[in-house]
Structures are given as C-alpha cells and as structure tokens.
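#struct-help
A.M.: can someone run this one for me? Single chain, 554 residues.
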Amino acid sequence: MRIVIIGSVAAGTSVAAKARRNTEEAEIVVYDQGKDISYSVCGIPYQIGGEVESIDTLVPRNAEWFKKRYAVDIFTEHQVTKVNREEKNIMVTDLKTGEVKQDHYDVLVFATGASPFTPPPFDQTSYENVFQVRSIQDNRDIHQFLSTHQPKKALIVGTGFIGLELTEQLTHKGLEVTIVQLEDQIMPSMDADMTFRAEEYLRTKGIILHLEDTVKEILGEKTIEKVITANGAAIDTDLVILAAGVRPNTQLAQEIGVALGDSRAIAVNRKMQTNIPDIYAVGDAAESFSVITGKPVYRPLGSTANKMGRIAGDVITGGELEHRGVLGTGIFRLFDMQIGQTGLTEKEATKEGYEIEVLFSIKPDHAQYLGGKELTIKAIADKKTGRLLGAQAMGENGVDKRIDVIATAISFGAKAEDLFHLDLAYAPPFATTKDPVLYTGMALENALHRNPLITPKELMEKQQNNVSMQIIDTRGKKDYETLHVEGAIHIPLAELRERSKELDPQLPTVAYCNKGVTGNAAQNLLLNKGFKEVYNLSGGNKNYQLYKKMKQQK
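D.P.: on it. Structure tokens below:
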C-alpha cells in the first residue's frame, strides 16, 4: 500500500507517524509546498515577541528526522498540482527546479491546511510592510522587517487568537498597536458581554480599538503609511498584520469531486473519509462536528489537526479510531489576562433553539489570603434537561484548568448539578474550598429549579418594556449610593427580613448584591416568605454595570 499525504504540518505528519506505528509494510510519502514541516503556528507570535528565543524551536523536526524515525519520505517545496482519481496518480512540481513528475497512490490524504484571508482593499496590491501569520516563513519575514525597519506603530486587522496574541507581543516590543475589527466586538467566537471585559482591559494597556469598522482606503505605494476606515478614522502605521481568519485549502480536492460541507471545508465522516473511496481529509482543510449538536463545524486548531491526523493514519492501516467531534475549546493570553471558552456560547445556544439558563460567577481563582484574583465564568445550561452547554472564563490565573474541567464534563454529557459533585483538587494556593467550577454547578442547578437567575440583558429588556417589578439592592448604603441598578430600592440583607413587608410578594422581584452571593441569600429569604417570583441578578451589580457600559458604548 502506498499512502500519499499532501501537507506536512500538524495533521499530515500525524497521519504519517500513526500509519507507520501501525505497519512497516506501507510506503508513506508526504509532499508540501512549504520549506518547513511539523511546525507550531501557534508559537509564532511568541517568537516574534521574543518569548521564544529561536525560530528553530518551533520546528522540532525536519524531513531527515522523519525519514530516520518513521521511514517516511517528505518532499518539501514540492507542490501537488493535479490529482487523477481514476488512475490514482498525482502530478508534482519541484518548486526549486521546476521539474514535474508523476506519482501514484493507493490512499490519498488531503492535509492541505488553510490560508489566511486577505480582506479588501489589501487584496489589490502587495505591500512591503503587510504580513500574515501562517507559516515559519511568515515568522522569518516579520522578524527581518522588525529588525531592519524598527517600526513604531502597528495596525492589526482582526481579533482572533493570532491578532490578539500579536497585539500583546508587539506592545511588549514597544510598538503602539491599533486594532480594526469588522464586528462590534473582539473575539467574535465569544459572547459580547464577556469580550467587553477584554476590550476594557486592552484600553488600559494603551491599545486603540476601532470596532465595527473596516479599512476602506490605503495611502502609500510600496509600503502602507496610513489607512482610512469606513467610519472615517485615519490611522498612521509602519506595520500591518492581517489576522482576519483563514479559509480551508480545498481547490485541489474540489477539482476531483471531493464534497465540501456546510462550512466550505472538506466533508468527512468520523473516520476522516471523504465521499471518494481511498481519499481522506484532515486538519484545517477538513470539517469537524459539534459534540453537543452533532452539526458540522469548522474549528481550525492545531490540537484538532493532530487528532484528525492520528485517526486517519489509524483507519488507513486497519485501525478502528473515530473522530468524536469538538467543543471549540480555546484559550489565549492577553497580557496578564487569561481568556478561554468551550462549548456553545449564549448566542449559539439560542440560535440552536435551546431555552437556556445563564450564570455569571465571579469568584477568586484561589484563596484570597494567598493572593487569589477575580475569575469570571459565564456558564450556560439547557433548562429542559439540565445539560451543561458551554462556558467562557476570564481571569489572571486558573482559567485553563476550569475550562478544561468543564470541557471534560460536557464531553461526557454532564448536567449542571454534576459539576458540584466533582472531587476537584483543593489547597489554598490552587483553589477555594468551593472551587469556581463547583460553585458554577451549584448555582446553575439552583437556578434550574428553585432560584432563577436574571441576566443584566434580560433585566434591561424588562425595564425598557416597562415590566412591573421591584428591584432590591441588598448591599451597604455606601455601595448603593456610589452606583446601583436603575430603579432599585435599598434594603440591606440584614434588614430584609423585617422590611420585606414593605414589598409586594405578588410582584416579580429582583434581588442583587455586588457579585451574586448575597443576592442569592436575599432571594432565598424572600422565597421562604412566600414571594411568588424572585430572581437573583446574575453576576450582581458589577456585572450589570459592565453590561450597561457596553450598551452605552455600542
């Protein structure tokens, strides 16, 4: 059996390695039009910023190493230009010599990856100071430009992982960074009421944000000196990074009738097989599916690419591995802030037709007497089944382990209540006695049954629609006078038991404190006194004021 793989980054090399581990009988050949193999795209921003000392550390293996270790022939700077599915052969051009040769296969794997999207008007002309980040060569080019030209101002178009990671790294290098983002929020894969926290944080770091805007005009010939946005902003720049997302490389596959999925990536089954026998697709060129909904999704991440590659390599050589889908789990660092997500967001869950409960939990990541810092988790559960659907988290520490725990729970079909019963590691330097994950499960479970939550969004909508209700601020007088929810009356929790007779038990009631805990205590008190409909404001006044500020700015 001769296995030919097109592409040699995470997915392609994983196919080759797993296939060889399973059998010594197969011939395995890999072609890649680039110079480097098996490199870390995700590490490039940190090498540009200087946290990773050498580019070489991002390319731990080369073709010679693979040949020696796995008896796999990898041909770099070789482009596959044509596939003949009937004859099972391919045409390959050596990009260094121009020589064209024919090769044959028994099994063909598309690991062709994805290419950066170039938005207009940048797609009209090439400029010396415009870069994208997708390969080690891009890394080399940016490094050389920084060293040679010493730019002072950078413009970043797009705010996915790469865009925001480079925002951090270029700021560390002393550049003034401006961001232009088409949507009205950064990180469009998350909910706006979470990313607004990050937007506020970026502004404290001196980052200039132009949201819901796009570049319309470019000034400069060989290099861009200034851009004009659709909203009329004039932005001077010495360096432009285009980070507006990627598109799967599917042209070669489409030419031979390989079907695409709804996401426009290559459609595959759980064994990474396409609609054509003996042809597979993996990595950023291939479509995945949601663990929760079962529907096709496109989530081009290195971790998923490695997984897909291993599955394909196993199946091709007689194994039984299957892809089990993804949750879209991701995390990145933004200066001192960690930002992560897994599963469905509120907007995605609503679009999918779920009736959801939304919790904002604001807790220290570990014991405050040992320096614990605030950690915000937004968690979403299905009201009908109690199933946990997703979470987003932000904080200085501990975001990774909370998101990973929740991702694991969702993968195994956990309900909100199951989170509370997890036996998680506890010691004051690492967690609180009621870990943020445990608290999330407890509060969501309460909300799904006796103690409903109301989000700032829902409360404001009721206020705007003049819904009759009573809002109780249970904090101290000073906190209330400093800033409170519009229309709230002040009854501290210590006085609420006696003063509850001042309230109408038949009227919908919202209780709140600063972050949510005392609000829950007030909610329980009023419910025990016979109040019919009592809500706790999720995330308390702090969350409400953030949401209010977001709405005012947008």
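A.M.: thanks! The chain has a mean pLDDT of 96.
D.P.: also worth noting: The CA atoms of residues 311 and 321 lie 5 Å apart.
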